[in-house]
Amino acid sequence: MSRVEKTSRSAVGILSDNDVEATIKSVRSALEWSEGANIVLVHNGSTDADCLMLKQLFPAIHHVWVRENRGVTAGINALFSAIGWLDESTRDFRGRVTEQPKLFDYESPWDWVLFLSEGSEIMTLGGEPTNPGLYAPKVWKTKKLRNVPSDSPGWVDTIDSWGALYSPSHKKIVHLREKNVLNYGGKSESERFMFIVPGSAFWVHRRTINVVGAWDESLHTYYEDVDFSMRAILAGVKLGRVTDTEIRHGLSQADQENQFHTQVLYTKNRDEIARRYQWLEQSVKPGASNERPMGRS
Fold first, then answer.
1. Would 61 be classed as within a structural domain?
2. Domain holding 14: CATH number?
3. With contact defined as beta carbons under 8 Å apart, do 112 and 129 qualify?
4. In whole angstroms, what is the distance from residue 116 CA to residue 100 CA?
5. Longest dimension (CA), the chain
6. Taking phi first (over 0 means left), then psi (-120 to 50 degrees means alpha), and beta for anything else, what does residue 234 get?
7. Which domain holds residue 55?
8. What is the structure's pLDDT at 188?
9. Helices H / strands E in the chain, number of each
10. Three-state SS for 135?
11. Do 91 and 77 meet the contact criterion of CB atoms below 8 Å apart?
């Protein structure tokens, strides 16, 4: 696959969540596929020292500094605000939106952003999707193997997620690993699933942000991607999967150690999002999906 050149209509947006080593890995991966002028790094509550170090290490990319870490939602909103996709007309209907000074004095040169969470690496980067919408790339994870021969690498890449299905009434997310969504149709007639795009990595068009609005910062972190996908469905946005962008995802150490995230926010947001959208799944037939056809779009 060719690199994303300076004239590209797409950018790579990376959210740094205070794990410097994971951030460096993500930026270096992006630079293998894209010009620095098409990469935006959001420092989400990074220290002055870390932010300065990363700016010196990667002077060719754009840097956006959010002084206080108010979660993934605020970091994503800061990204889209900085590139000029968020303004008064696209404010979140639930209140506060983290805004940033614009990177450009003119209209944003990009129509697409490939978003990467901290620690993610690009394995394959094809062209941006054909039609505006919200799309899930194929996301891999590295799985450690047990009891392997000494000459074995000791690990293997497996598909972690290629889009997902969500059932509000069952408070259940099923990450897809197959081409056909209907391979998982629910275990009972009461299970109705809607296709969503997970937030670890995604392609999004500027028109999607214009229509759906900002990410809900009251959620902070966890289930914010489900909320955005549900609002996209309600706005008539196309959700789907792409076949030619592949990402290797790795959790940062900071995220794994944050008990507030894993024990408090996860449970609170799981219940809140189920409450918000349980009514919506009644329009979905058991075993059906709102996902659009496979392909580059």
1. yes
2. 3.90.550.10
3. yes
4. 19
5. 59
6. alpha
7. 10-161+199-252
8. 45
9. 8, 12
10. strand
11. no
Contacts of 45 (CB under 8 A, 6+ apart): 17, 18, 66, 67, 68, 69, 70
Tokens of 163: 């889009």
Pairing relationship of beta strands 201-205 and 112-117 according to DSSP bridges: antiparallel
Which run of H or of E encompasses 196?
strand 194-196
On whether residue 287 sits in a domain, the answer given is no
Strands 164-167 and 172-175: antiparallel
User: What residues have CB less than 8 Å from 274, skipping those under 6 apart?
Assistant: 168, 169, 171
Distance of alpha carbon 124 from alpha carbon 140, whole angstroms: 11
| Residue of 58, 71, 73 lying closest to 12 (CA atoms) | 58
Rounded to a whole number, what is the distance in angstroms from the first to the last CA of the chain?
Answer: 17
Q: Provide DSSP, 208-221.
A: HHHHH-S--GGG-S
How many domains are contained in the chain?
A: 1
Contact (CB, 8 A) for 186 and 123: no
Q: Are strands 134-144 and 155-161 parallel, antiparallel or unpaired?
A: antiparallel
User: What phi and psi values does residue 187 have, to the nearest 5 degrees?
Assistant: -90, -10
The CB density around residue 271, as the number of other CB atoms within 10 Å, is: 12
Low-confidence ranges of the chain (pLDDT < 70): 1-7, 88-96, 144-156, 179-191, 251-262, 283-297
CA distance 102 to 109: 12
Please count the residues of the chain. Answer: 297
Res 90: pLDDT: 59
Q: What is the pLDDT of residue 101?
A: 81
What's the CA gap between 171 and 7, in Å, rounded? 43
Assigned domain for 55 exists = yes
Domain presence at residue 270: no
